[in-house]
Amino acid sequence: MTRFHSTKAHLKIAVSALIIGTVLTGCQMSSSLARPAKYAAASETAPDSGKLSKGLKKAESAVAADPRNAMLRLALADAYMKAGRFDSAEMAYDDSLVLGSESPRAAVSLALMQVANGRSADALGTLEEYRDIIPAGDLGLAMALAGNTKQGVAVLVDEIRGGNSNAKVRQNLALAYALDGRWPDAKVMASQDVPADQVDDRIRSWAMMAKPEDYQTRVATLLGVTPVVDAGMPAQLALANNPDAGAQARAMDAPLADAAPPVRYADA
Q: I need a surface site. Which of 21, 142, 182, 211 has the fewest CB within 10 A?
């Protein structure tokens, strides 16, 4: 899912080719392309909790009916993310990739959930593992969000120097500069696409989420969702509880391990 357009896109990170959204910095989640969105979550209309709940139940039911379908797992992960259930979303994104999904969005979303759950090192490992399928414009910002700000900036600068200088990449670089503490550079880059009277507000909003310890708030703000206490994915949906048919058949045919030898009685 790639979604990005417009200069006003206050990025609301979405996991598209990378984070569903416009400028991986503020894209609103949608099933496909990212659409422009106001950066400040407070300025946006809160999602309908009833619709989110109904959509999540449908996604869970679909996975229960076809538990080894990678795309259904991906849709379930998106539903968990929208609901602010980051632990469940992380597991579902990982399951989707394990089942063979080659979606750049799934890879980036998994990394974002790992960042939100306080495991930046795992997120960087995920980004490295899937870097060949993740667009550089998304990869750079994801690296910066995961704590490797200098590498993230370098990836984005190389992308722009290579001729891919669109609004999404420029604004991702602006945010990466901010996360790296390079505020003058962030302001200059942001001003290329943001109206002059809004640049200072953009920079201030970034400053409020730039602290390393605010990893969950940072990801939640970019995604435009509210994190909730997450008890985890229902056990019956766990991939480990839904082996493929081949594995089930092998388990049924396998001889019992360490079977006790027959008891022999001495002749009376």
A: 211
